[in-house]
Amino acid sequence: MRTYLIDTLNKYKRISKSLDAKAVLCNKSWQVFNNSGEKEIYIFQEDGSLIISINGKAIIAKWSFITANDTVLISHNESSFMMKPFFNDDKLFVLQLDGTNEYSFLIDESIKASFRAKTLNELELYIKGAEFIIEKKKTEIETRPKTKFDYDSQIKMKSEYDRKIYEAQKRITQSKNDLIEKTNDDSKYLNDIKSQTKKIKQEVNISEPQKRITQSKKNWSEKKNSNSESSNETKLQQDVKSETISVQDENKTDWITIVLWICFIGYIFCAIMVYFTENPEGRSFISVLLNIKG
Questions:
Q1: How big is the CA angle at 80 (ends 77 and 85), to the nearest 5 degrees?
Q2: pLDDT band at residue 260, thresholds of 50, 70 and 90?
Q3: Given pLDDT bands bounded at 50, 70 and 90, which one contains residue 151?
């Protein structure tokens, strides 16, 4: 059995005086820690035989528990080793070579794969850590209130504290659930807004051109009507002007005609007068007219 010298481990000894070594060691497969890479298995039998397997090669040895000094005696090939139980829990059993600071570490093979301590330093820290936990629990027990009144008060305070913790956790859980529901509602609301926005955009994209076209048609129609009214007014003014000019021309023509007629009549009268004045026949005709008048 491989042993390791550790000077600082002696003060962390933890073993119960009422330890039943046979009950602990028997009916289990113990893997001895070593750093050589060999798989060393110890199986303690209730009949005192010890099966030692190294990399699958097994030999039969003997063991016994000596109650006089609480030691485990292991005998093999005319050599015997007296080992004192040093540390024990549900994963590890440590044996100390009597009278020395050399230790052998037996690990329960069924939990070897999940056992975190893989090196000698980690085994030492594991033992120290376990001892620290035990000392802490022992201190808590020793400092526990001695009187029933104080103890009941402590229990009541602890119950009240636990109740407040439970209520706080309950409120936190409720707040988380409310936040999740609100988030879901907000997400649904945002999706509705996005949907409405998309719909409005589509409607705007469709109706806006139509609106612009309608407005353009309306503006064109108004402009056309305005142009038409302006054109009619201009035409009316032109017609009035033309009519005025026409009337003026007609009046002018009438005056010219009257003047021409007057001139023509005067000319005829003058011609007649010249004819009757210069012509004897004419003078006789005038005389006749004057006689008739007289």
A1: 135
A2: confident
A3: low
Structural domains of the chain sorted by starting position, each given as residue range(s) with its CATH number in brackets: 4-142 (2.40.128.370)
Q: Which pTM value belongs to this model?
A: 0.44
Cross-strand bridge partners of residue 31: 41, 107
Give CA–CA dist 1/50, Å, rounded. 12
Tokens describing residue 254: 């009438």
Question: How many whole angstroms separate alpha carbon 92 and alpha carbon 286?
Answer: 186
Direct distance between the N- and C-terminal alpha carbons of the chain, in angstroms, rounded to an integer: 201
Span 228-242, pLDDT tens digits: 655 666 666 676 566
**C-alpha separations of 70 from 30, 34, 82, 161, 170 in Å:** 20, 25, 10, 46, 53
Nearest residue to 53 via CA among 61, 103, 45, 37: 61
In the predicted structure, residue 183 carries a pLDDT above the cut 90 = no
- 126 contacts 92 by C-beta, under 8 angstroms: yes
* Torsion (CA) 42, 44, 48, 53 in degrees, nearest 10: -30
Question: Cα(28)–Cα(50) distance, rounded to whole angstroms?
Answer: 12
Position 60 pLDDT exceeds 60: yes
Distance CA 116, CA 179 (A): 41
